[in-house]
Amino acid sequence: MIKKILTIFTFFSIISVSALYADQKKIGFIYIGPPGDHGWTYMHDQGRIYMENELGDSISTTYIENVPENADAVRAIRKLAQSGHDLIFTTSFNYMDQTLEVAEEFPDVKFEHATGFKRTDNVSTYSARFYEGRTVIGHLAGKMTKTNTIGYIVSFPIPEVIRGINAFYLAASKVNPDVKIKIIWVYSWYDPGKEADAANTLINQGADIIVQHTDSYAPCQAAEKAGVLAFGQASNQEAFCPNAHMTAIEDIWGPYYAAKAKAVIDGTWSSEDTWQGFKEGMVEMSPYNKKLLSNDLIAEANKIEKSIEDGTLHSFEGPIYNQAGELVVKEGEVADDGMLASMMFYVQGIDGDIPQ
Amino acid sequence: MNIELIIGILNIVLISTTPLVFAGIGELVTEKSGVLNLGLEGLMLVGAVSGFITLVLTGNYFYSLLLSIISGVILSGIFAFLVLNLMTNQIATGLALTIFGIGLSAMLGKKFSGTPIEGLSPYYFIIISFLLVLSVGYFLSKTKSGLMVRAVGENHNSAYALGYNVIKTRYLTIIFGGVMSSLAGYYISICYAPMWQEGMTAGRGWIALALVVFATWKPWRLLIGAYIFGGVAIMQMNLQAIGVKLPGQFFNMMPYLATIIVLVFISSNKLRLKLSAPASLNVPFEKNQ
C-alpha cells in the first residue's frame, strides 16, 4: 500500500512543475572492486563524488562494490534498476551482456556501460583513451631505461589492454629502437600478491622499469623496494612508491558522469558512444616526479600531451606493421577508432604471442 | 641461465609460497584431529587486516603481530564452539566463517586501505615456516600429545573411551589452525605486499585447503606440495617473460586440478586409510553415545 502511494506520489512529482516537488534523480554504480583499491574503482568513485558535488541535491547516488563479472552482476544491476534508479553506470568491460539483459527489462532506466561496445536505446557506452597516456609513459620509459628491458604486467588479453601495450611499445621504440618489453599475464585485475610476484620476476629478469595494467599498487611497491622505476595505474600512486613512481595515467570520470546525470535531469539523455582522451580531460597524467625525471624530459612529456590534445600527434601513426610484418596502418595515416576498438594483435617488435 | 637469475627466482618462490605453508600446516593439524575448517580465507583476511590496522595505529610490529594472532584465536574459537559444542555442520560453519571474515575485514579496513606502511622483511617468516613444518611433523609422529591428536582424528569414540578429552584436543587444534591462518594473512599484508586492500588474499586460503588434501595429511609432503604449487606459478611467469607461449589460466587452476586427482585416488576407502586421511574427519562427536 505504502509502495503504491509512493509510486503515485512519484508519478505526480514527476509531472509537477513545482520546484518543491522536483524529484531527485537516483544514480547507481556497479563497481568491480572496492573503492579503496586506489586504482580503477577508486577513480570511478572519485567521479561519483565529483558528480554529487556538482549537482548537489538534484541527485542521490548509490553504489554496489565488488560485483563479480558473472551472473551475480545481473542481480546487482537489477537491484539498482528495481529500486528506482534513473541512471546506472556499470564500470567494467565484462558487465556488457549483463547490462544489456537488465536494460531490456527496464526500458525507462538509462544505462551507461564503461569500456564496452554494445549499445541499445537505453544503453550508452563510454571509455577513455588511456592509450594516449601509454604513449607518454612509453616515451619516458624508452628514454629512462638503462637495461633496455621493460617489464609489463597485464591482466586479461582484451583489446583495451593490447592497445595499451602497442601504444606503449610504439612510443618507447621510437625514442629507443633497442628497447624490449617482457610481458606477464596474471589473469586477474586485482591480486596484490601475484602482481608483486610478477614485478619481482620481471625485475629479476633485468627489467629496470615496471609498467602495469592491473589495479593494485603492489607492482609499484615492488619496484620501489628493488630500486627500479615504475608508473602508477589509474590514479596517482606516488604516496606508495615515492622513489619509483615517475607518473601515472589517471582516469578522470567526474565531468562525464556529471554531464550524463545532467542530461537525465533535463531529459536530453540519448544512447551514444563516448571515447575521450587528453583533449576532453578524461585522461590526465599525474604530476611528473621531479626527483626522477629531468626538466627536459618533463618538457618532452608535456609536449607529447599537448600534441595529442591538438591532434598533431596520434598514438598510432603509420607506418605500423603487425608481428607478421604486414602493413596495418599506412604511412601518413593513423589507426581509426574501429581498428583501435578491436585491436587484438601485437605490433612488430614485441616478442611473444597474445594468449588465446 | 646464470646463477643470479636462478637465485632470484628461488627468492621469489620462497616469498610467494610462505603463506600457503602457514595456512596449510595449521589446517593439517586441525584436520588431523578430525575437524574440517573451510574458514581459512576468512581467517587470513581478518588476520591480515587486524595486523595492518594495529601497525598503522601503533607503528609497533610486535603489537600488530599479537593482534593478528588474537584475531585468529577469537575467530577460530567461535568456530570451535559452534562445531564442537553446538555440533553445527563443519562445512557450512566453515563457509560461513569465510564469508564473515571477508565482510568483517572489509568493514574494519575501510578507513585504512591505501595507508602506506613500512613492510617487514619476509625472511623471518620464511625461516619460521620451515621450522614450523619440522616441529609439526615431529609433534604428530613422535610425541604423546601428537599421537593423541591423531587418535582423536581417527576414531573419536575409541579415543574418548581411552580417556582422552576429545573436545579439548579439538579446541586446541582448531585454534592452532586459526592462528596459523592469521599469521599467513599477517605475512601477506605486512611482508608480501605491504598494504591493505579488500580481499587481498585472493583465494590463497582455498589453495591451502587443497594443499592439505594434495599432501595427504603429511607435513613434509605439504611443504613439498606448497613449493610445487608456488614454484610452478613463478616458473610460468618467468617463461612468459622470456616469451614462451603458455596457457596461463591452466596454471592458475593447477593446484585445484592436482587436488581433484588426489581426491579421485583416495576415494576408495582402503587407499584413503593408507594415505592417512583422518577417519573421523568432518564427523561430529557426541560425548554420550
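qc> The longest strand of chain A covers residues 245-251.
qc> done
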